[in-house]
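Let's practice the habit of predicting before peeking. Look at the sequence and jot down your guess about where helices and strands might fall. Then scroll down.
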Amino acid sequence: MTELSDTHVEESPSTGGRWAAGEDPAKRRQILDGARRVFMKLGFDAASMNDVTREAGVSKGTLYVYFANKEELFTAMMETERAAFVASVRNTLKETSDPATALHNFGITFVAHLTDEKVINAMRTVIGVRDRMPHLCQRFFTGPENIRTVLKDFLTSQVQAGRFEIDDIDLAARQFLELCGGSFFKLRLFGDMDVPPPQHEMDHVVTGAIRVFTAAYAVKQQG
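Done guessing? Here is the structure:
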């Protein structure tokens, strides 16, 4: 792949001027997309910044303007992926006013993502660098906004609406996530399940999770 010229300032479409060095969002996205393909194919240890420049189609000078080293690039890539997923599940919960349907859609989206091949590879990579980059594991699994905080916000709104009665919302959110994805995730992570589960299996497990969850927390209707 031919490298682009080593130019660090580019036209800003919003102002007609130029982006400051390292601030062009399209260029950053281009680099992160290339980095994702490289890391998913080679893993963190085997991948190099040179691999990323070739895959992303940028010069080494441009790459280092945006990211100082491989660790910073990997962290940015993982956080970008996580943020996109969090946004998608938040939108899923807003698509219907029926809490059971919302939880079902959330559960299916969650399990499908959690068992996707690229996500499993990313999880293995994160676990593999835990001793050298403990902060990455912490940010990846428990960042300021993650799948659990999204679910907690939803459950809080349902409690306020009188549909659920939950004393410990954090615990309830953890329980629902485990009910939906615990066995699938572990089987995929440790190689006992070679491919993501089929739709009917995900639906069966998530439906059962909702049945257990609502039996414990849903407010019983009178009459």
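How did you do? DSSP finds ten helices and no strands in the chain.
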